[in-house]
Amino acid sequence: MKKYLCAAAVISVAASAWAAPVHPDSTGFKFKDVKVVKTSPVRDQNKSGTCWCFSSNTFYENEILRKTGKAVDLSEMFVVWHTYDDKADKYIRTNGKINFSQGGSGLDVPYVWAKYGAVPESVYAGLNYGEDNHVHGELEAGMSGYLNAINRKPNRRLSTAWRNGLHGILDAYFGELPETFEYEGKTYTPKSFAESLKINPDDYVAVTSFTHHPFYEPFVLEVSDNWLSGQYHNVPVEEMKAIVDNAIENGYSVAWAADVSEGGFKWANGYAVMPAGKKEADMEGTELSRWVKLSAAEKEKSKYDIKGPVEEIKVTQEMRQDMFDRQETTDDHGMVIVGIATDQNGNKYYKVQNSWTDNQVYGGFFYVSEPYFLAKTMDIYVNKEAVPAAIAKKMGIAKK
To answer: Residue 366, exposed/middle/buried by CB under 10 A (0-12, 13-18, 19+)?
Structure first.
């Protein structure tokens, strides 16, 4: 199972495919939106592993839109600058024993908001290096090389200047951070602007579903990008699904982190499914005689030759845990669930907003089957008010 860095590898390889998105009729699927919440426009992370920031920013933009009716475009790179900086500090303090990369957690965004504030995209786009769109390969390589050199302590102890050196790299690529700025006729600092958005990070909760920790108790999710050691509430998988369903039904979007490296994740065709594959018991005659001659690899490949709605696996809590324990389910990509839909056979899907431009088959959105969601969700992040009361009580979270 290939581990993608916020699916940046997918973006790099498939950029040419975006120039000519497939026509919906050619996929074999016909989706009908049943319920869709208000959402901000699709953004473009381009060749950067910052889906965690794009998805969380979109989620908060949706929350601002839901609460105030006001559309706002928030700067991702303001958050990324501070995240790189604080992650680097922890990397050096732990002698390089944590992950330092482009990847991150959706919880990094509320962390930065609470500690440093926020700014609009029009004030800080973070494109200070001769590119029109985000490309972070050189930046990451430069920072990693610098930090690894610092971590070797060639002076036997750290200087008092190493972090200023890192700031110099970040400022060179992203630009210097604004201390004050003008926005819609008012003067703000990043902190005062964040306060003006009326978003309280304490009103939100991160939720996951794994059996290696007790249900209804928070725990630190063991993935490399959780450098903050963020806590996630643990509930049974059916209750995690119920939280999403209740959120969408009541007008709330849901930030979603998931594994996207499955063969059934057909982003270019606008859907993600978990096909069950063919069974010999359902075949006869020529079809069966051909099937038994196929290699295991050929049989596995045929499972993902999808022409429309297919029979999917029945996901259990045990199956989901096994996929995580064996690292078949990994922390790949951050997105936002914004709706519920059905296909032509009545199967249920979640409508998902991505950050890979709007030049896609469904304009930057795609559809995720319920089995895919159940099997491959790493975690969700949602307003506490969107959690059904009975589940919130078991989780021990207070609602307004």
So the answer is: buried
Amino acid letter, residue 313: I
DSSP class of residue 389?
H
Q: Rounded to an integer, what distance in angstroms lies between the CA atom of residue 306 and that of residue 255? A: 27
Rounded-to-integer distance, Cα 119 and Cα 117, Å: 7
pLDDT recorded at residue 173 = 98
Interval 189-222: pLDDT, tens: 999 999 999 999 999 999 999 999 999 999 999 9
Residue 33 CA to residue 168 CA, distance in Å, equals: 47
Rounded Cα distance between 64 and 70, Å, is: 7
From its phi and psi, is residue 66 left (phi > 0), alpha (psi between -120 and 50) or beta? alpha
pTM of the model: 0.93
Q: What is the mean pLDDT of residues 53-63?
A: 97
Longest CA span, the chain: 76
Cα(236)–Cα(393) distance, rounded to whole angstroms? 14
The whole-angstrom separation of Cα 205 and Cα 239 is: 14
Q: Is 363 exposed, middle or buried (0-12, 13-18, 19+ CB in 10 A)?
A: middle
Q: Is 336 helix (H, G, I), strand (E, B) or coil?
A: strand
CA 68, CA 51: separation in Å to the nearest integer? 25
Distances (CA, A) of 202 to 128, 199, 239: 33, 9, 21
Write the burial class of residue 98 (CB in 10 Å: 0-12 exposed, 13-18 middle, 19+ buried).
Answer: middle
- Long-range (24+ apart) CB contacts under 8 A made by 150-157 are 150/92, 151/91, 151/92, 151/95, 151/96
Per-residue pLDDT tens digits for 10-42: 444 344 334 456 777 789 999 999 999 999 999
Give the rounded distance of the alpha carbon of 313 from its chain centre: 23
Burial zone of 5 (CB within 10 Å; 0-12 exposed, 13-18 middle, 19+ buried): buried
